[in-house]
Amino acid sequence: MSIQNEKLINSHNGNGNPGEVPNNNVKMTDNLKRYSCVIFDLDGTLVDSFQAYKDAIGAVLSSFPEKKEFPENPNALVNSPSSVHIEKLFGKIVGKENQDAAMEIFVDKYNEVCFKKTSLITGVKDLLTYLKDEGKSLNVATNKPGPISRDILKHLGIDKFFDCIYGTGDGMASKPSPQMLDKIIEEKGYNKSDVIFVGDSPNDIITAKNAGVPVISIASGNHTREELRSYNPNFLCSGLSDANYITDVRLEVVNKKNKVLGKSDKISCINQKAEDNNINKPKTWRDFLNEGKGDKEVADLSYTAYLLSKDTPKNSIYRKLAFESDIKKRCDSPEKYINNTIEEAKKSNKTEHFKKIASL
């Protein structure tokens, strides 16, 4: 249902799956930590609005029993570029002569149920907390009206995480126009190389490409991985929780090329990948777990010493360890365990071993 402005980039190449998915094992936090500014879509990315939209559409249908046609997936309306498009869709469903009345019923019902029947998607609050502790600028760009978007995020208790929350009615064109992303980037003063967009639809992928920023595409249910992959996002995953590993779609292209490229071309691809990886990026708990050959207690201690060497506050160390590792599953009292780990790491931080860790 995405509407593509002819003056904007049409990123769909029509070639389908560009290759086999490699096992990249890149965590959501590891990927997002590379960027200073993260811009999120709202519906299907941060919040689940399916039931609220379903109830609103149901109210329209019950009011017009002689409806002409209706889409199989009610939640497809979530990805419509604007309320104008939704109104036109209702014109097809109930007839143009009834579309204004249908839209009024839809809006009234949605406003009635949206707070009660909109919920956070699993892992969202933990991720936002983690990124905020990392000093990231978090923002929202949605095709839902701006005022109701801000009210919903406030109702769900996560509005405090965001610097900017923009939607339709805020003076900018709807996605796939890049205007909302451009305004956020300009207001926050970032270069586009410091920014990444996160969304769940082809429309979001096109928006990011129009804005000239990379995009993580979330296959949260409205669109399949195969459909999203065909639009060539930079990254692809199943959800915002760190339980969902990210596929670097660029690697898929490299893997496909490697089947036919010569040796020198393969080396060029590898060098480009090394450059993209940014060897100076911060280390994570999983990095120390791999270096410690799977010993989780060694990883806990080593990562804590590393964070202490970076003058990381104690409360941030606690959040990082609790979020990045499985301490909560391993310990009866995670807070006590982490406090002991911090104290032990402080004592060991002066040894040659931990000096070496801190320099990594």
Describe the structure.
With 360 residues, the protein is α/β, with parallel strands linked by helices. It has three domains: 28-47 and 118-255, 3-Layer(aba) Sandwich (Rossmann fold); 50-113; 285-358, no CATH class. It is 48% helix and 11% strand. The protein is built from 17 helices and nine strands. The chain has helices at 28-32, 50-63, 83-94, 99-113, 124-133, 146-155, 179-188, 202-211, 225-229, 249-258, 263-277, 285-291, 296-309, 314-324, 327-330, 334-348, 352-358, and strands at 37-40, 47-48, 119-120, 137-145, 162-168, 195-199, 215-218, 235-237, 247-248. The protein has a seven-stranded mixed sheet, with helices on both faces. Strand 7, helix 9 (225-229) and strand 8 (235-237) form a beta-alpha-beta unit. The chain is elongated. The relative contact order is 0.13. Mean pLDDT is 76; it is low at 1-24, 78-82 and 257-280.
In whole angstroms, how far apart are the ends?
A: 47 Å
CATH architecture assignment of the largest domain: 3-Layer(aba) Sandwich
Helix-strand pattern, N to C?
HEEHHHEHEHEHEHEHEEHHHHHHHH
DSSP helix fraction: 40-55%
